[in-house]
Design a protein that fits this description.
By secondary structure, this protein is mainly alpha-helical. It has helices at residues 7-26, 28-40, 44-72, 74-90, 98-115, 118-128, 133-161, 164-177, 179-185, 213-225, 228-258, 263-288, 293-314, 317-323.
């Protein structure tokens, strides 16, 4: 007799795709900075401000995403978030002023992607799985690195061969197509289907909370703000996010391009980091059960600091000229006063 696949795995697979595409969308600004500079003459600081607004709203939405999902349900919340993200990205080719970039990529895409953050993974793991929660959480967490690996080289190739507008249209179409499986397969809880969670025995009935979810989120945040450990972890993750999303994820590709490394190759290097990220995340979870987590964090941040100190030397223009052959510059970029690329 064929064993029926538990619906929890279908929901987890759908969530994996959502997180994968969301990670791909968050990696797009690194690909767009150079062509936007070339076409519109905007400074890198102007474009980075829109990315900063995006990252800010992405982070601020995290504490309240669970409350939004609690109030409106998983399926509707994720579908609306995907509509916001795909609309913001799809309208990008029509912009002509910097404030429109801030509105579309900063506000619209940032708010929508904040709902499809890792808080979604924890909700799926806790609601749908009584066993294998660690495995599910690890796989869903790895979707971020997988999205970077899948999308970055492809988007960089599209940008070089067709143009940055093709990048926006492609990623918007992928996000829009994902709305269909979310509406078809995503469910809020196992009790909606009258089944127990995966690994569970009995159906867990849903008890509607007596406290407003938004109020509960604010109270939980207030409790955390009074904790020393919260500030220590929050501060360390702030540094982690600033160096990962703000520095490397956004500016590594333009920095490589400025120093003679072709854009597709730079995107491939960043995607390769996603592979090691996926391996490191899994290994870190295994180590955290066996070693003092404080020592592990100190080791991780020490290695991160050393790598960032080495980065300016790795991007030295003289080293880049001798190492990388120049690739084709875009017509709009040639002769631009912002062109700092060491062409042969």
């Amino acid at each position: 007799m064929t064993r029926r696949i538990h619906p929890a795995w279908t929901v987890a697979a759908c969530t994996f795709l959502v997180l994968l595409v969301a990670a791909g969308i968050r990696s797009v600004p690194g690909v767009l900075i150079v062509p936007l500079e070339a076409e519109f003459g905007w400074s890198r600081a102007t474009i980075s401000f829109a990315v900063a607004v995006n990252i800010l709203l992405y982070g601020l939405a995290g504490p309240f995403a669970a409350a939004i999902i609690e109030r409106f349900g998983l399926r509707r919340t994720i579908a609306v978030a995907l509509v916001m993200v795909s609309s913001g990205v799809a309208l990008t080719p029509l912009m002509w002023e910097p404030w429109q970039l801030v509105l579309l990529w900063g506000v619209v895409v940032g708010s929508g992607s904040g709902v499809t953050a890792l808080v979604l993974a924890s909700i799926i793991a806790s609601r749908w799985f009584s066993s294998r929660r660690g495995l599910v959480m690890g796989v869903l967490t790895a979707s971020t690195a997988t999205g970077q690996l899948v999308f970055l080289p492809l988007l960089a190739h599209l940008n070089e061969s067709i143009g940055w507008r093709a990048v926006s249209i492609t990623i918007a179409a992928v996000a829009a197509c994902l709305i269909v499986p979310v509406l078809l397969f995503m469910r809020d809880r196992p009790s909606d289907l009258g089944i127990p969670p995966y690994g569970g025995i009995a159906v867990v009935p849903y008890v509607r909370p007596t406290v407003n979810p938004a109020v509960r989120a604010v109270r939980a945040l207030g409790t955390g703000l009074r904790s020393r450990d919260f500030w220590l972890l929050g501060g360390s993750f702030f540094v982690c996010g600033a160096s990962t999303n703000g520095l490397i994820g956004t500016h590594l590709i333009p920095a490589c391009f400025d120093n003679g490394i072709p854009e597709v190759m730079a995107a491939s290097l960043l995607a390769a980091m996603g592979v090691f990220d996926m391996v490191g995340t899994t290994l870190s979870g295994w180590l955290s059960d066996r070693w003092d987590n404080r020592a592990l964090l100190a080791w991780y941040y020490g290695l991160r600091g050393i790598s960032l100190l080495f980065l300016p030397f790795a991007l030295d223009p003289a080293w880049g000229r001798s190492r990388w052959a120049p690739s084709r510059c875009s017509t709009a970029w040639i002769g631009s006063p912002r062109c700092r690329r060491p062409c042969a």
